[in-house]
Amino acid sequence: MAFTCENIVYRYPGASTEVFQGLSFRMAAPGFNALFGPSGVGKTSLAKIIVGEIDGFSGDVNAEGMTRLLYSYNMERLPDWSNVGKHLDRVAPASAGGRKDALIEAFGMANFLGLRFSQLSLGQQNRINLMRYLLQEFELLIMDESLANVDEKTRESIILNIKAMFPDRYFLYISHNVVEVSKYCREILVLRGSLKRPQTVSLTGIDIQNHQPLDKDRLEQTMLEIMNAS
Amino acid sequence: MLHRRIYQFLIIFLLGVTLLFGVKYLFGLSDYVIPSPFDLKHTLGMVYKSYGMDVVSTLTVAIIGQVVSIFMALMVGILGRQTTWFGSFIKVAAYNVQAYPIVAIAPIIFILFGDGFFSRLLIAAMICYFPILLSVLGIMSEPVKEIEHFYRITGRMRWQLEVKIRAFENIGKLTTVISGSATLAMAGTIVAEFIAANAGIGYSIRIALYQSDLSKILVALFLIGITLAVYQGLLEVAGNLIRRGWTGGQ
């Protein structure tokens, strides 16, 4: 199972120039990977192309052996007609089994399941939203700023738990946080402006796991590489 | 809310009547043109029972017409929300038909169906149907992307869920449109009765007009206004209860 984008060319409707001009990259193995780049460079558009929410592009998106590609983003809402606990119950497939309880624990949401979505803080809203995606069956999950507004410590705990719980799934984590991306991600795809060549640079992150000590020199080195590439 | 509606109507009605009496005494108009306060009181005592029954008859037709039009507008609005050719056809048809004054079609309805209950009901329903339909179409064809995205990408979206999400997100607009359409339904019924029917307060106003009896017309207007204020107030209270029940009191 591998994920490949080859020679993607895409122009926003009504725009005069392409946002992607022959963009190519490959994610060879499952894991927690990142899509990094400055604002407006096309990260969200690329994510939508990958999951098929945008058409009208040329090139190939090849998801070998993957049938369930999901995309979550941080502005999503749950309907407010019932509490978030009931929503989770409703969208959790039978195959999710004990995963729901493990996620509730890992995301620190046990005390908030009786509340409605609008009663939660922004960080809690994003956590609940991401949780319902993780309850689904998927091979690839794109997390577009899905942990925005979540404090750093909780975010670390969540990311490390996701990595431990889903070692055989592909994740594409979109974030502007260079430390986070360097620290937790295995493969970092740096998306550069449409005028730069190549348009993407692939780097290797530290991919830290639960209870693993952090090599600070390596972290600095990775961050520097990312900043230079972007 | 109910009290506020009634107060508002009473203030407006009293202002209107005061203005009328002001004109009467300022220009020295006779009681035949504008009745005196005493005449008005006398007429009220004479006709309030029969006019009250007429208003109830009109309101009954208006409520049935409104319910029919709400039901139809919801059905057509749900069908027309889709971006298919059928949805587009319904939207274009609704926008064009609503631009035509329904009252102008009323004589045809009376010719075809006579001057009974059905004609009044049909005109009332038609007059309030199109404004409701346009609102429902607008609400139902506007995706709530930040909620619907999850259900679409995970393959869970069904038309019932789509309708539920859009209705829930716009419940305030929907209840406002429905309570506002009560005025249209009532106006439609009165116009129908005024044109050709043989019952209802519109019919009584027509007779009062032939008698040039402004007192009777003012009494009829008062009874229509107060009844409509109570009905609309009740609709708003019901709308608020539904909204509160659905959103958990938020």
List the helices and strands and how they pair.
The complex is a heterodimer of chains A (230) and B (250).
Chain A: E1 3-10, E2 20-27, E3 31-36, H1 43-51, E4 58-63, E5 69-73, H2 84-91, H3 99-106, H4 122-134, E6 140-144, H5 152-165, E7 170-174, H6 178-184, E8 187-191, E9 200-204, H7 216-229
Parallel strand pairs in A: 3-7, 3-8, 5-6, 6-7
Antiparallel strand pairs in A: 1-2, 1-4, 8-9
Helix pairs in contact in A: 6-7
Chain B: H1 2-27, H2 37-80, H3 85-98, H4 106-113, H5 117-140, H6 145-153, H7 159-169, H8 171-195, H9 201-210, H10 214-247
Helix pairs in contact in B: 1-10, 2-3, 2-5, 2-8, 2-10, 3-5, 4-5, 5-8, 8-9, 8-10, 9-10
Please provide a written account of the structure.
The complex is a heterodimer of chains A (230) and B (250). In chain A, helix 6 (178-184) crosses helix 7. Chain A is an alpha/beta fold. The radius of gyration of chain A is 18 Å and the shape is globular. Chain A has helices spanning 43-51, 84-91, 99-106, 122-134, 152-165, 178-184, 216-229; strands spanning 3-10, 20-27, 31-36, 58-63, 69-73, 140-144, 170-174, 187-191, 200-204. In chain A, the strands form 2 sheets. A 6-stranded mixed beta sheet of chain A has the order 5-6-7-3-8-9, sandwiched between helices. In chain A, strand 6, helix 5 (152-165) and strand 7 (170-174) form a beta-alpha-beta unit. Chain B is mainly alpha-helical and 250 residues long. Chain B is built from 10 helices and no strands. Chain B has helices at residues 2-27, 37-80, 85-98, 106-113, 117-140, 145-153, 159-169, 171-195, 201-210, 214-247. In chain B, helix 1 packs antiparallel against helix 10, helix 2 runs parallel beside helix 10 and helix 4 crosses helix 5 (117-140). The two termini of chain B are 18 Å apart. The mean pLDDT of chain B is 87.
